[in-house]
Amino acid sequence: MPAMVHTINDAPGDPAFVLTELGEEKIPEPIIRPIMRERPLRYVRDLNFSNEPPLKVTGSSNVVDGAPKAVYPAPVEERGKRFEAKSKADETEYVRRLFPAGLAGFELDNGSSLSKESFREEGRPEDEDVEARGDEWEEEAREAIDAKWQRRWEEARSQAPTRAADKGKSYICPMFPYPSGTLHLGHLRVYTISDVLARFKHMQGYGVIHPMGWDAFGLPAENAAIERGVDPSGWTMQNIAKMKEQLTAMGGRWDWSRVDANGFSWRSGAKVEKLRLKQWFLRITDSKEALLEDLEFLAKDNCWPERVLSMQKHWLGKSQGAKVEFYVEDVAGEQLPSVEVFTTRPDTLFGVQYLALSMSHPITARMAKAVPRLQAFIDNAPNLPADSKAGFLLPGIKARSPLVKLAGPTTKVQESMPVYAAPYVLDDYGSGAVMGVPGHDIRDHAFWRENQGAEPILTVVAAPADNSPASSFLTPGPGDEAYVHKGMLTMASGPFSGQRSEDAMKNIVVALQENGHNASHTESWRLRDWLVSRQRYWGTPIPIVHCDTCGAVPVPVDQLPVRLPELEEGQLKGRNGNPLESVPEFVNANCPKCNKPARRETDTMDTFMDSSWYFFRFADPHNDQAPFSPEAAAASLPVDIYIGGVEHAILHLLYARFISKFLATTPLWPPNTAAEHRGEPFKRLITQGMVHGRTYFDPTTGRFLKPEEVDLSNPQEPKITATSETPNISFEKMSKSKYNGVDPASCIEKYGADATRAHILFQAPVSEVLEWDEDRIVGIQRWFNRVWRVVTSNRSARPKSPTEIETALPEPSALSEEEADLLLLTEQTVSSVSESLTSTFTLNTVVSDLIKLTNALADIEADKTDTQLRYHATSVLVQMMAPLTPAFAEECWEALHTAPDAADGTALANSPRNPSIFDHPFPDPDIRIIEQLSNRSQPCAVQINGKLKFATKIPVPDPALSGEELQRWVVERIVATEEGRKVFGDDGEGVRGAKKIVVVRGGRTVNFVIPRGKGGKGM
Questions:
Q1: Of the candidates 1015, 792, 1010, 778, which has an alpha carbon nearest to the alpha carbon of residue 897?
Q2: Burial of 240 (0-12, 13-18, 19+ CB in 10 A)
Q3: Which residues contact 29 (CB under 8 A, 6 or more apart)?
Q4: Most Cβ neighbours (<10 Å): which of 127, 331, 611, 937?
Q5: What residues contact residue 300 under an 8 Å CB cut-off, 6+ apart?
Q6: Are 920 and 880 in contact (CB under 8 A)?
Q7: Which range among 59-63, 731-735, 743-747 shows the weakest confidence by mean pLDDT?
Q8: Of 160, 206, 295, whose CA–CA distance to 636 is shortest?
């Protein structure tokens, strides 16, 4: 009997319902198949017609999970007829005509026989209705799932854990947000990463510490409060409440119980003003050697990114070398103050060809007052790129080498040299001056060519090939590059010619000293002591009292913490100085030592101070007697995985390391745990890349375009609304000025939290820039829908309780090729995903691995594979998805363990509610199965020009191979077989004549397209 399907049609202009004659074609499950959409709509209310006689209709409140509500016979006479409903009344009449006996029990979620979304309302435009209809269904599903599982998780927090944390603690800590009131996509990225890792560790059996808090103190909040005329405390708490809702909406599993009243901030963005002030410093320079040496400890096993270690090493800036003075004079021969430079290569002193001074060097500053062009150069210097080779030749002055007394006929040190102001010279490196040696330093070479053009460059060190190499000059052209290595000094080094660099570095300094010059061997550090004073209100008060008799006196421990006073209206107005100075009840105090009248310190602490130890406080957040107890520190620290932006790679992380090392010298952090980790606060550091947004700008003016200025009616061909020109498009750091910001809350609302999370993870490796392209989320949605179809179609025929999910799988030797492939891919995916979540943190490959397993499950023929194997692979897939897409995985897990024949769609009998997927362990790879199935062989049919030439056996390729890699691997195995050598030659020469090689079915069939006469001996 011909079958009929009552289906939804999403094609614009077509009726909402169509009766279609399908002949003898088998109707696939689910029977409702959307048209013009690549994913099935969720929570569809409709009627399905069976293709098995007698014709019947099945009603379902959720077509996707396939739990039928009732079954009714369908009228045969309606076969092939077309019906369009224009109103609710038409719909009701249609159902009554089809089923005059009624549809007892066919009750849907909205209380009607068919959903209202399935029909257009009278007077509503058809195209608008078609677009809205599918979106409303999808939004309803997303919102329902997110709300359902967030409610379940909240309920579970008040209950005792169902699984013991038998693997110890795992402390996962993200850098916390400044409570601006709105999360941006950068926040969403870092907190998605941390939540994935925390959930994974929980499923592995660890006791997870995953706190969330607020980077609350600091200048941004104070400036915002001044702008709005409000108290920064109230403004901050209001924003915290809003952002906590946003963090909850993203599906994160946060431990809010560890948040105390303090906040932390390390960002400002305010304009810097230089003032001479008496301020407080921490002597971080006393710890410089430990901070440098222990970078090697953090580098082991790639625990910290090499980029961050390099940045910290550069910031510490230890250099071994020499201090030397150069002489400077004006055109009249008048001596100016000598210029001290620090060099790590005193062996190149005979090759100095210029001096470069910083923008604020005393000589530069004095000349800028008389030379307007120099002042303009200084003013523009901050706008130059970091690698700029720009320089300003200081007029009327020359520099002379201190080696002039050691000059000879082959040297150049007797000649004067130019002096430049150069932005690349740092004020705080040495004395703000460097010597330029273009023959032996890449940067100096580039600077010389930029500013001196083709002028020859002297080389004074050469490769140690000769005992006393001749002097040479570099000129533009081949070979014009600096020799940066140590070697043998050339004739241009005068009396030191022929010496090795290592010897000359010592001997030249000694010679300068003997000739009465200021020169010495020394080391230099870029690191300076940590300035912690800020002249602002919204921060942690510095606990010091100033007494005329006793001096600066620390506030006694029993009077800590010093709390900020509440300000009266008008006291916080952003004027110069600290608002605390105008609060007498705060400022006036008694000296803790002599009890005489004194003044309280009004500076507040740099908020780097707060952020340098908050992770210690989270170990013991409710301790009102101490920052934290030694027992809590020993149990929880150090942090196992710390996650945040690379923009904090230097100061925040360096200060946190310093404070941590200090605490390791106190009883607060017991030495048995602190010493093991060298007093380092973070075992593993993950730095995520920034999120860039699509940016439109006018090709003529370069002006950034607002969203309303761009016509996106055809997203593939955007136009500038005013001119119809095509705008330039790039991906830039998101900012208000570029109009390219994206609200993560709107993405979550539109696509669901899990789709947004998965998209963020999939689009780019964790450490790289993520170019946000919202259009690509559809790929994640398609994946979710394939997963859902896999889940609903691969339930066990006799499903087990999810507390007993282990299935009796067949022995690998008893599996068919397709079954063996599926089992191998499943175990390899578990292995790959586990490695990515444990050590490499390549979370984008986790998503791609899961998609690949999903596709394999979706493509496998159910009637040719073992039921328990499919169930096993599906349950493992959903378990691996859980850390990434928690709510969706929970929904899939519940559906997987819902009896397919339960009339009311409820869970299994004797199970009042399915346990959360997070109450089950993360799967472990079965190494035995991987090894056994990886070493098996498979048949391979070899064709030449489409005709079978021979059949052989080759090893089963790694499922991870694809494209050209798979082709190369398979061809190598074919040529290595006895049959392959006969046809293609012992050396595979015949293969090289192939114009094209087609590999299908994972290497089970290979076709070589070879022109006549180009093949091997056996063709």
A1: 792
A2: middle
A3: 66, 793
A4: 611
A5: none
A6: no
A7: 59-63
A8: 206
